[in-house]
């Protein structure tokens, strides 16, 4: 259930999210009649895992992938993982999430909860709540969203708020899409360079499909003055099943 959200997740550029498609699978004839289920999987290789503009893979290549189980009622559950620069004793980020997507008033809404985990590490897992609204203006597809982590010991006893806007615009019949976005973060993760100012991040990219896979190339930058937040170009190759 992606609705162009930054959430599902996070390392995927908007172009890649637009290219993902669900593959309905019948769990059993009786079960499908009562509750149709769509199961989708995705894998990706990225030149840098940038989360809200900041590199979590030490500015090197990361391998990523996940699964979603979507129910016709609008509910979904899923998991997503990426290789990362070590957090404690862990070199894997494993996210577990559940939510509900629905349409109302011409908008596509997505609400849910996500837990960031780091297998092998302790005292670093934390919970985040999220919501977004997607809408279309002509050919422009837009999403406004937020993610809120309430106060938790594992994020220093603080809370965290991230708000963002993302957009995608297809370039006629070329098969290319322009993508872009901007985000603002304040709280536990809002000042990674320690200068006292909250973080902004932004991106601009292009996405396309070739050789049976989805591609995107994005320029990513932040307002932060440290190596992991410096401007860079991120190349992604992804595939959904």
What does this structure look like?
With 241 residues, this protein is mainly beta. The protein has a single domain (14-240), classed as Porin (Beta Barrel), CATH 2.40.160.40. It is built from two helices and 15 strands. It has helices at residues 14-19, 29-34; strands at residues 23-24, 37-46, 50-51, 54-55, 62-71, 75-87, 90-104, 107-117, 126-137, 140-152, 158-170, 177-187, 199-210, 213-222, 232-240. The chain has a twelve-stranded antiparallel beta barrel. A two-stranded antiparallel ribbon has the order 3-4. A hairpin with a 2-residue loop joins strand 7 and strand 8 (107-117). The chain is globular. Residues 1-34 have low confidence and may be disordered. Residues 1-28 form the signal peptide. This is TIGR02001 family outer membrane protein. It comes from Glycocaulis albus.
Q: Summary?
A:
The chain is mostly beta strands and 241 residues long. Helix content is 5%, strand content 60%. The model is unreliable at 1-34 (pLDDT under 50).
CATH architecture: Beta Barrel
Discrete helix count: 2
The third-level CATH topology is Porin
Secondary-structure element order, as H and E?
HEHEEEEEEEEEEEEEE
Q: Kindly report the name of the CATH homologous superfamily.
A: monomeric porin ompg
Q: How would you classify the helix and strand content by structural class?
A: mainly beta
- Beta-strand percentage? over 45%
Largest sheet: 12 strands, antiparallel, barrel
Net shape: globular
Integer tally of domains: 1
Taking all Cα atoms into account, the compactness measure Rg is 18 Å
Helix content: under 10%
| CATH top level label | Mainly Beta
Spatial strand arrangement across the major sheet: 2-5-6-7-8-9-10-11-12-13-14-15
Uncertain segments = 1-34
Keywords: Signal
Organism: Glycocaulis albus
Protein name: TIGR02001 family outer membrane protein
Pfam family, one: Gcw_chp
């Amino acid at each position: 259930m992606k609705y162009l959200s930054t959430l599902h997740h996070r390392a995927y550029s908007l172009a890649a999210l637009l290219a993902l498609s669900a593959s309905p699978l019948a769990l059993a004839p009786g079960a499908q009649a009562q509750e149709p289920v769509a199961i989708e999987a995705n894998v990706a290789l990225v030149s840098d895992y940038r989360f809200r503009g900041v590199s979590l893979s030490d500015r090197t290549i990361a391998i990523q992938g996940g699964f979603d189980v979507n129910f016709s009622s609008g509910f979904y559950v899923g998991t997503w993982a990426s290789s990362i620069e070590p957090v404690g004793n862990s070199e894997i980020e494993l996210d577990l999430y559940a939510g509900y997507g629905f349409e109302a008033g011409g908008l596509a809404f997505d609400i849910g909860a996500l837990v960031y985990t780091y297998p092998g590490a302790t005292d670093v897992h934390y919970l985040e709540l999220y919501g977004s609204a997607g809408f279309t203006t002509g050919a422009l597809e837009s999403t406004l969203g937020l993610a809120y982590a309430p106060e938790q010991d594992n994020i220093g006893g603080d809370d965290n708020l991230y708000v963002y806007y993302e957009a995608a615009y297809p370039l006629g019949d070329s098969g290319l899409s322009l993508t872009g976005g901007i985000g603002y973060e304040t709280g536990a993760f809002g000042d990674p360079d320690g200068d006292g100012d909250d973080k902004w991040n932004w991106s601009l990219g292009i996405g396309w499909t070739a050789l049976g896979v989805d591609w995107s190339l994005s320029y990513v930058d932040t307002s932060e003055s440290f190596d992991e937040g410096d401007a860079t170009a991120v190349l992604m190759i992804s595939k959904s099943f």
